[in-house]
Write a structure and sequence with these properties.
Largest sheet: 9 strands, antiparallel
Distance between the termini: 33 Å
Order of helices and strands: EHEEHEHHHEHEEHEEEEEHEEHHEHEE
Strand content: 25-35%
Low-confidence stretches: none
Mean pLDDT: 93
CATH topology of the largest domain: D-amino Acid Aminotransferase, Chain A, domain 1
CATH class of the largest domain: Alpha Beta
Number of helices: 11
Radius of gyration: 20 Å
CATH architecture of the largest domain: 2-Layer Sandwich
Number of domains: 3
Protein backbone atom coordinates (compact mmCIF):
# COMPACT_ATOMS: atom_id res chain seq x y z
CA UNK A 1 0.00 0.00 0.00
CA UNK A 2 3.03 2.30 -0.32
CA UNK A 3 1.29 4.43 -2.97
CA UNK A 4 -1.90 4.82 -0.95
CA UNK A 5 -2.81 8.10 0.74
CA UNK A 6 -5.57 8.58 3.31
CA UNK A 7 -7.27 11.91 3.96
CA UNK A 8 -8.20 12.62 7.58
CA UNK A 9 -10.70 15.35 8.42
CA UNK A 10 -9.81 16.88 11.78
CA UNK A 11 -6.42 17.49 13.33
CA UNK A 12 -6.71 16.59 17.03
CA UNK A 13 -5.09 13.73 18.94
CA UNK A 14 -7.22 11.10 17.21
CA UNK A 15 -6.05 12.41 13.83
CA UNK A 16 -2.49 12.19 15.12
CA UNK A 17 -2.91 8.56 16.19
CA UNK A 18 -4.66 7.64 12.93
CA UNK A 19 -1.68 9.12 11.07
CA UNK A 20 0.71 7.03 13.19
CA UNK A 21 -1.41 3.92 12.58
CA UNK A 22 -1.27 4.55 8.82
CA UNK A 23 2.50 5.03 8.97
CA UNK A 24 2.81 1.52 10.47
CA UNK A 25 1.20 0.25 7.27
CA UNK A 26 3.37 2.42 4.99
CA UNK A 27 0.34 4.55 4.08
CA UNK A 28 0.62 8.32 3.71
CA UNK A 29 -1.80 10.76 5.34
CA UNK A 30 -3.11 14.24 4.55
CA UNK A 31 -4.86 15.99 7.44
CA UNK A 32 -7.33 18.84 6.80
CA UNK A 33 -8.39 20.99 9.74
CA UNK A 34 -9.94 24.37 10.53
CA UNK A 35 -7.43 24.75 13.39
CA UNK A 36 -4.09 26.15 12.20
CA UNK A 37 -2.44 24.81 15.36
CA UNK A 38 -3.88 21.30 15.00
CA UNK A 39 -1.38 18.84 16.55
CA UNK A 40 -1.99 16.16 13.90
CA UNK A 41 0.13 18.23 11.48
CA UNK A 42 3.19 16.92 13.39
CA UNK A 43 2.23 13.31 12.63
CA UNK A 44 0.75 13.52 9.11
CA UNK A 45 2.68 13.64 5.83
CA UNK A 46 0.82 16.77 4.76
CA UNK A 47 -1.43 19.34 6.44
CA UNK A 48 -4.11 21.60 4.94
CA UNK A 49 -5.56 24.44 7.01
CA UNK A 50 -8.92 25.80 5.91
CA UNK A 51 -12.52 26.32 6.92
CA UNK A 52 -14.70 23.33 6.13
CA UNK A 53 -16.79 25.34 3.66
CA UNK A 54 -13.75 26.32 1.53
CA UNK A 55 -14.60 24.49 -1.71
CA UNK A 56 -11.21 25.09 -3.34
CA UNK A 57 -9.27 23.65 -0.39
CA UNK A 58 -11.71 20.75 -0.08
CA UNK A 59 -11.13 19.95 -3.78
CA UNK A 60 -7.35 20.20 -3.28
CA UNK A 61 -7.63 17.79 -0.33
CA UNK A 62 -9.69 15.29 -2.34
CA UNK A 63 -7.22 15.38 -5.25
CA UNK A 64 -4.37 14.32 -2.95
CA UNK A 65 -5.99 11.25 -1.35
CA UNK A 66 -7.41 7.82 -2.19
CA UNK A 67 -9.65 7.27 0.85
CA UNK A 68 -11.16 9.67 3.39
CA UNK A 69 -12.05 9.30 7.06
CA UNK A 70 -12.49 11.65 10.02
CA UNK A 71 -11.48 11.94 13.67
CA UNK A 72 -14.60 13.64 15.10
CA UNK A 73 -18.28 13.37 14.29
CA UNK A 74 -19.39 17.01 14.37
CA UNK A 75 -18.19 17.92 10.89
CA UNK A 76 -20.97 19.63 8.90
CA UNK A 77 -22.98 17.00 7.02
CA UNK A 78 -22.88 19.23 3.92
CA UNK A 79 -19.05 19.09 3.96
CA UNK A 80 -19.01 15.30 4.33
CA UNK A 81 -21.54 14.88 1.51
CA UNK A 82 -19.53 17.15 -0.79
CA UNK A 83 -16.32 15.21 -0.16
CA UNK A 84 -18.10 11.86 -0.47
CA UNK A 85 -19.18 12.76 -4.02
CA UNK A 86 -15.50 13.08 -4.99
CA UNK A 87 -13.76 10.54 -2.75
CA UNK A 88 -15.43 7.81 -0.72
CA UNK A 89 -15.70 8.54 3.02
CA UNK A 90 -15.85 5.81 5.64
CA UNK A 91 -17.72 5.70 7.92
CA UNK A 92 -20.34 6.94 5.45
CA UNK A 93 -21.85 10.42 6.04
CA UNK A 94 -25.39 9.09 6.53
CA UNK A 95 -24.21 7.48 9.78
CA UNK A 96 -23.05 10.85 11.06
CA UNK A 97 -26.42 12.35 10.24
CA UNK A 98 -27.96 9.95 12.76
CA UNK A 99 -25.27 10.08 15.43
CA UNK A 100 -24.58 13.83 15.35
CA UNK A 101 -27.95 14.30 17.05
CA UNK A 102 -28.46 12.66 20.45
CA UNK A 103 -32.23 12.41 20.00
CA UNK A 104 -31.88 10.72 16.59
CA UNK A 105 -29.24 8.41 18.06
CA UNK A 106 -31.48 7.31 20.94
CA UNK A 107 -34.43 6.83 18.56
CA UNK A 108 -32.25 4.69 16.26
CA UNK A 109 -31.19 2.50 19.18
CA UNK A 110 -34.70 2.08 20.56
CA UNK A 111 -36.09 1.32 17.09
CA UNK A 112 -33.55 -1.53 16.94
CA UNK A 113 -34.64 -2.90 20.32
CA UNK A 114 -31.47 -1.73 22.06
CA UNK A 115 -31.92 -0.54 25.62
CA UNK A 116 -31.06 3.04 26.53
CA UNK A 117 -31.95 5.17 29.53
CA UNK A 118 -35.43 6.75 29.41
CA UNK A 119 -35.36 10.09 27.60
CA UNK A 120 -37.52 12.90 26.28
CA UNK A 121 -37.07 15.71 23.77
CA UNK A 122 -37.02 19.21 25.32
CA UNK A 123 -37.47 22.26 23.09
CA UNK A 124 -38.42 24.98 25.58
CA UNK A 125 -38.73 25.86 29.27
CA UNK A 126 -42.31 24.66 29.67
CA UNK A 127 -41.41 21.22 28.25
CA UNK A 128 -38.47 21.06 30.66
CA UNK A 129 -40.60 21.91 33.69
CA UNK A 130 -43.20 19.30 32.73
CA UNK A 131 -40.53 16.57 32.46
CA UNK A 132 -40.37 15.76 36.17
CA UNK A 133 -40.65 12.01 35.55
CA UNK A 134 -37.12 12.18 34.08
CA UNK A 135 -35.55 13.77 37.18
CA UNK A 136 -32.89 13.07 38.40
CA UNK A 137 -31.50 13.35 34.90
CA UNK A 138 -28.99 14.95 32.58
CA UNK A 139 -30.06 17.64 30.13
CA UNK A 140 -27.87 17.57 27.00
CA UNK A 141 -27.81 19.59 23.80
CA UNK A 142 -28.97 17.37 20.93
CA UNK A 143 -25.99 18.46 18.85
CA UNK A 144 -22.38 19.29 19.67
CA UNK A 145 -21.18 19.19 23.27
CA UNK A 146 -18.44 16.83 24.47
CA UNK A 147 -16.36 16.28 27.61
CA UNK A 148 -19.26 17.61 29.68
CA UNK A 149 -19.87 20.73 27.58
CA UNK A 150 -23.55 21.48 26.87
CA UNK A 151 -24.65 19.13 29.68
CA UNK A 152 -26.49 19.91 32.91
CA UNK A 153 -27.03 17.42 35.71
CA UNK A 154 -30.40 17.95 37.42
CA UNK A 155 -30.56 16.24 40.81
CA UNK A 156 -34.07 17.26 41.89
CA UNK A 157 -37.16 19.20 40.79
CA UNK A 158 -36.09 22.35 42.69
CA UNK A 159 -33.04 22.69 40.45
CA UNK A 160 -35.35 23.10 37.44
CA UNK A 161 -36.34 26.57 38.70
CA UNK A 162 -32.73 27.76 38.88
CA UNK A 163 -31.60 26.37 35.53
CA UNK A 164 -30.86 29.08 32.98
CA UNK A 165 -30.92 27.48 29.54
CA UNK A 166 -30.70 29.10 26.13
CA UNK A 167 -33.26 27.20 24.09
CA UNK A 168 -31.82 28.21 20.73
CA UNK A 169 -30.70 24.57 20.67
CA UNK A 170 -32.89 21.51 21.13
CA UNK A 171 -32.15 19.35 24.14
CA UNK A 172 -32.67 15.79 25.30
CA UNK A 173 -33.34 14.96 28.96
CA UNK A 174 -32.05 11.53 29.95
CA UNK A 175 -33.14 9.91 33.20
CA UNK A 176 -30.21 8.89 35.38
CA UNK A 177 -29.72 5.20 36.10
CA UNK A 178 -28.42 3.90 39.43
CA UNK A 179 -24.96 3.61 37.99
CA UNK A 180 -22.59 0.84 38.98
CA UNK A 181 -19.96 1.36 36.30
CA UNK A 182 -19.31 2.47 32.73
CA UNK A 183 -17.74 0.36 29.99
CA UNK A 184 -17.03 0.73 26.29
CA UNK A 185 -16.53 -1.68 23.42
CA UNK A 186 -14.38 -0.82 20.40
CA UNK A 187 -15.28 -2.72 17.24
CA UNK A 188 -13.85 -2.58 13.72
CA UNK A 189 -16.23 -3.66 10.98
CA UNK A 190 -14.61 -4.61 7.65
CA UNK A 191 -17.82 -5.67 5.88
CA UNK A 192 -21.00 -7.73 6.40
CA UNK A 193 -20.49 -9.99 9.44
CA UNK A 194 -16.75 -9.31 9.27
CA UNK A 195 -15.34 -7.86 12.49
CA UNK A 196 -12.45 -7.49 14.84
CA UNK A 197 -13.70 -6.64 18.32
CA UNK A 198 -11.81 -5.64 21.44
CA UNK A 199 -12.70 -6.82 24.93
CA UNK A 200 -14.86 -4.45 27.00
CA UNK A 201 -12.96 -1.56 28.61
CA UNK A 202 -13.91 -0.19 32.03
CA UNK A 203 -13.98 3.62 32.28
CA UNK A 204 -14.03 6.21 35.06
CA UNK A 205 -15.07 9.80 34.38
CA UNK A 206 -14.25 12.87 36.47
CA UNK A 207 -16.24 16.07 35.83
CA UNK A 208 -17.78 14.25 32.83
CA UNK A 209 -14.35 13.84 31.20
CA UNK A 210 -12.84 10.36 30.74
CA UNK A 211 -10.01 10.03 33.26
CA UNK A 212 -9.16 6.32 33.55
CA UNK A 213 -9.66 3.24 31.37
CA UNK A 214 -8.61 -0.34 32.05
CA UNK A 215 -8.79 -3.68 30.36
CA UNK A 216 -10.18 -6.16 31.23
CA UNK A 217 -13.34 -4.59 32.60
CA UNK A 218 -14.48 -6.14 35.86
CA UNK A 219 -17.84 -7.46 34.65
CA UNK A 220 -19.55 -10.83 34.58
CA UNK A 221 -19.50 -13.14 31.56
CA UNK A 222 -23.08 -12.28 30.59
CA UNK A 223 -22.31 -8.54 30.38
CA UNK A 224 -19.02 -9.29 28.60
CA UNK A 225 -20.84 -11.20 25.85
CA UNK A 226 -23.90 -8.94 25.77
CA UNK A 227 -21.84 -5.77 25.27
CA UNK A 228 -19.90 -7.33 22.40
CA UNK A 229 -23.02 -8.71 20.69
CA UNK A 230 -24.77 -5.35 20.99
CA UNK A 231 -21.80 -3.54 19.40
CA UNK A 232 -21.84 -6.00 16.49
CA UNK A 233 -25.59 -5.53 16.06
CA UNK A 234 -25.22 -1.72 15.98
CA UNK A 235 -22.31 -1.83 13.51
CA UNK A 236 -24.28 -4.14 11.22
CA UNK A 237 -27.47 -2.03 11.34
CA UNK A 238 -25.46 1.09 10.48
CA UNK A 239 -23.55 -0.64 7.67
CA UNK A 240 -20.45 0.74 9.35
CA UNK A 241 -16.90 0.49 7.96
CA UNK A 242 -14.00 1.26 10.31
CA UNK A 243 -13.50 1.39 14.07
CA UNK A 244 -16.29 2.66 16.30
CA UNK A 245 -17.02 2.79 20.01
CA UNK A 246 -20.18 1.91 21.91
CA UNK A 247 -20.33 3.37 25.42
CA UNK A 248 -22.47 1.62 28.05
CA UNK A 249 -23.89 2.18 31.52
CA UNK A 250 -24.27 -0.77 33.90
CA UNK A 251 -26.76 -0.23 36.72
CA UNK A 252 -26.85 -1.69 40.23
CA UNK A 253 -28.98 -4.59 38.96
CA UNK A 254 -26.42 -5.50 36.27
CA UNK A 255 -28.57 -4.14 33.44
CA UNK A 256 -26.76 -2.87 30.35
CA UNK A 257 -27.73 0.41 28.65
CA UNK A 258 -26.18 2.00 25.57
CA UNK A 259 -25.17 5.55 26.45
CA UNK A 260 -23.61 6.82 23.22
CA UNK A 261 -22.09 5.64 19.95
CA UNK A 262 -18.92 7.30 18.68
CA UNK A 263 -18.59 6.79 14.89
CA UNK A 264 -14.80 6.92 15.02
CA UNK A 265 -11.81 5.73 16.99
CA UNK A 266 -12.23 6.58 20.66
CA UNK A 267 -10.29 7.87 23.66
CA UNK A 268 -11.08 4.77 25.76
CA UNK A 269 -9.38 2.64 23.10
CA UNK A 270 -5.99 4.37 23.32
CA UNK A 271 -4.71 1.45 25.41
CA UNK A 272 -5.20 -0.86 22.39
CA UNK A 273 -1.96 0.64 20.98
CA UNK A 274 0.05 -1.16 23.68
CA UNK A 275 -2.31 -3.90 24.88
CA UNK A 276 -3.08 -5.52 21.49
CA UNK A 277 -1.14 -6.71 18.48
CA UNK A 278 -3.29 -4.41 16.28
CA UNK A 279 -4.60 -1.11 17.63
CA UNK A 280 -8.04 0.41 16.99
CA UNK A 281 -6.25 2.98 14.77
CA UNK A 282 -4.47 0.44 12.57
CA UNK A 283 -7.64 -1.65 12.27
CA UNK A 284 -9.57 1.47 11.24
CA UNK A 285 -7.02 2.19 8.48
CA UNK A 286 -7.13 -1.44 7.34
CA UNK A 287 -10.94 -1.41 7.15
CA UNK A 288 -11.38 1.86 5.24
CA UNK A 289 -8.64 0.89 2.75
CA UNK A 290 -10.11 -2.58 2.16
CA UNK A 291 -7.02 -4.35 3.46
CA UNK A 292 -7.09 -7.88 4.82
CA UNK A 293 -8.05 -8.02 8.46
CA UNK A 294 -5.56 -9.46 10.89
CA UNK A 295 -6.73 -11.51 13.86
CA UNK A 296 -6.64 -9.08 16.76
CA UNK A 297 -5.26 -10.49 20.01
CA UNK A 298 -4.85 -9.02 23.46
CA UNK A 299 -1.21 -9.19 24.55
CA UNK A 300 -1.45 -7.52 27.96
CA UNK A 301 -3.90 -6.24 30.51
CA UNK A 302 -3.53 -2.46 30.66
CA UNK A 303 -4.55 0.77 32.36
CA UNK A 304 -4.69 4.21 30.76
CA UNK A 305 -4.90 7.62 32.41
CA UNK A 306 -5.79 10.79 30.50
CA UNK A 307 -3.47 13.68 31.32
CA UNK A 308 -5.73 16.69 31.72
CA UNK A 309 -4.43 20.26 31.66
CA UNK A 310 -1.21 20.69 33.63
CA UNK A 311 -1.02 16.93 34.41
CA UNK A 312 1.06 16.74 31.22
CA UNK A 313 3.93 18.75 32.73
CA UNK A 314 4.79 16.01 35.23
CA UNK A 315 5.31 13.46 32.45
CA UNK A 316 7.23 15.53 29.90
CA UNK A 317 10.45 15.10 31.88
CA UNK A 318 9.64 11.95 33.80
CA UNK A 319 11.73 8.79 33.55
CA UNK A 320 9.36 6.01 32.54
CA UNK A 321 9.38 2.37 33.59
CA UNK A 322 9.63 -0.23 30.83
CA UNK A 323 5.90 -1.00 31.09
CA UNK A 324 4.83 2.67 30.85
CA UNK A 325 4.05 4.44 27.57
CA UNK A 326 3.63 8.22 27.48
CA UNK A 327 1.83 9.98 24.63
CA UNK A 328 2.13 13.77 24.31
CA UNK A 329 -0.50 15.23 21.96
CA UNK A 330 1.76 18.25 21.29
CA UNK A 331 -1.03 20.77 21.75
CA UNK A 332 0.46 24.24 21.72
CA UNK A 333 -1.49 25.59 24.71
CA UNK A 334 -2.18 23.92 28.04
CA UNK A 335 -5.80 24.49 29.02
CA UNK A 336 -7.77 23.42 32.06
CA UNK A 337 -10.06 20.40 31.42
CA UNK A 338 -8.34 19.72 28.10
CA UNK A 339 -6.83 16.34 27.22
CA UNK A 340 -3.12 16.98 26.69
CA UNK A 341 -1.79 13.42 26.54
CA UNK A 342 -2.15 10.00 28.12
CA UNK A 343 -0.14 7.33 29.90
CA UNK A 344 -0.68 3.61 29.34
CA UNK A 345 0.67 1.03 31.78
CA UNK A 346 0.72 -2.60 30.68
CA UNK A 347 0.82 -5.60 33.02
CA UNK A 348 3.69 -7.82 31.89
Amino acid sequence: MSNTTIGIIGGGQLGSMLSSGAKNLNIKTVVISDDKDAPAQFFADEFIFCKYDDDLKIQEFCNKVDFVTFEFENIPYSTLSKINEIKKINPKPSINKILQNRLNEKDFLNNNNIRTTSYISVKNESELKSSKDFIPGILKTCTLGYDGKGQYKINNEKELDNLKINFENNYILEKLVKLKKEISVIITRFGPQEYEIYDPIENVHEDQILKYSKIPAEINENLFNQSKECAMHIAEELGYIGSMCVEYFIDKNENLYVNEIAPRVHNSGHLTINAYNVSQFENHIRAICGLNKVETKKLYNAKMVNLIGEDILVYRNKKLKDNEFFFDYLKNTIKENRKMGHLTVIEK
